[in-house]
Amino acid sequence: METSTKNLYDRFLEGKATEEEINEIYDRITATPEKLKEFREYERFWEQVHKPTEDVLASLAGVKATIKSYKRRRAWRFVSAATAAAVMVGVVMFRIHTKTSDPLAPEAVIQEYVVNVPAGGRTDIALPDGTKVMLNAGSRLSYTSEFNKTTRDVFLSGEGYFEVAHDKEKPFNVNTSKCVVMVLGTKFDISAYEQDDETFTALVEGSVLFKAGEDEALVSPGELVTIGDKGIVKEVVDVRDYCGWTTGIIKYNNIPFSSLLKRLEREYDTHLILEDKFLGDRTIRVSFSKSDSVDTILKVLSDILPINIRKGNKVYYINQKQ
Predict the structure, then answer these.
(1) Which CATH architecture has domain 248-320?
(2) What is the mean pLDDT of the chain?
(3) Helices and strands per DSSP (H, E), number in the chain
(4) Tens digit of pLDDT for each residue in 93-111?
(5) In angstroms, rounded to a whole number, what is the distance separating the alpha carbons of residues 135 and 190?
(6) Is 214 helix (H, G, I), strand (E, B) or coil?
(7) Residue 81 banded pLDDT, cuts 50, 70, 90
(8) In sequence order, what are the residues at sequence separation of 6 or more whose Cβ sits closer than 8 angstroms to the Cβ of residue 155?
(9) Would you place residue 58 in the very low, low, confident or very high pLDDT band (cuts 50, 70, 90)?
């Protein structure tokens, strides 16, 4: 590691980095997975040889503190898994933008708050209205400073479990690239990863209105609604199978093998290459714990399916047994 980079990381971890330096760190560690790994490793080393100052602990205390500290200006903040109670695994990055149609009118400023969860990560956040959200690996949630004024709009790419605070005067809307889920107060899971073919919502309690273009469906507890090539499809399911990831139990019923591999890549921040593509359409039923290693899970899959698994450098190659 270059001395200049080390000094930059030191300033951040000591709570002395300027806004410009924080932006520089963000740009650096989001450029490649290797740079993010470098930062994580140095952070662990730094924590072993330094006692965090009060400023550092304050700056890493969580998303809520970041919002309060940086109102009215653009800023970057990082939340460390080692020190932030809000983060279960990995590093969460928080970005605040400012937007205004008239730069001379400060009262017109609209801020955007963004939470990014990396592959292999998971985090809990509390929104200003009291709504609780758990975000799964590889997810992104954003909302603006207009949130909770007349409506409550958030924008999701990835998967989140929502416990929405009840407010009949202010509808809560989860916007994704394929649909909008409209609620008043309820508990539900929504999966809307950009790289997945389908977006779905599983309702635990309450009711939601699922809208995709001109189509819509009213969803009741115990129902799953999906939008894909066949339009909106609604069915009765055991919603615990879809929300189990929030408690560390991951279960899939009749999931295409290729879709399962995508999810495992996100959950474990690894690369799984399916060399025989026709295997991807095979559907399987499988359950495992988040505490299980990826090697353990792949071993179970090799007992279920006629596959060979070859491990490379941070990658697994999967093909059919001959």
Answers:
(1) 3-Layer(bab) Sandwich (3.55)
(2) 78
(3) 8, 21
(4) 444 444 444 444 444 567 8
(5) 10
(6) coil
(7) very low
(8) 141, 142, 143, 174, 175, 176
(9) very low
pLDDT band for position 150 (50/70/90)? confident
Place of tokens 């952070």: 43
In the chain, pLDDT over 70 holds for what percent of residues?
A: 77
Cα separation of 91 and 63, whole Å? 12
The whole-angstrom distance between residue 284's C-alpha and the CA centroid of its chain comes to 25
CA 298 to mean position of chain CA atoms: 23
Instruction: Kindly report the backbone phi and psi dihedral angles of residue 247, in degrees, each rounded to the nearest multiple of 5, phi listed first.
Output: -110, 10
3-state SS assignment for residue 277: helix
What single-letter amino acid sits at 3?
T
Q: Helix axis angle, 33-49 relative to 3-13, nearest 10°?
A: 60
Q: How is the chain split into domains, by residue range?
A: 51-244, 248-320
User: Residue 127's closest CA among 107, 89, 93, 155?
Assistant: 155
Long-range contacts of 69-76 (CB under 8 A, 24+ apart): 70/96, 71/111, 72/98, 72/106, 72/109, 72/111, 73/19, 73/98, 74/19, 74/98, 75/19, 75/22, 76/19, 76/22, 76/23, 76/25, 76/26
* Predicted pLDDT of residue 50: 60
Q: Do domains 51-244 and 248-320 have the same CATH topology?
A: no
Q: Which residue has the tokens 């930059």?
A: 8
The dotted CATH code for 51-244 is 2.60.120.1440
Q: For the segment 180-203, what is each residue's pLDDT rounded down to a tens digit?
A: 999 877 899 999 998 888 899 999
Question: Do the Cβ atoms of 114 and 142 come closer than 8 Å?
Answer: yes
Residue at 294: amino acid letter: V
Token readout for 11 is: 């300033």
Cβ 136 vs Cβ 124: under 8 Å: no
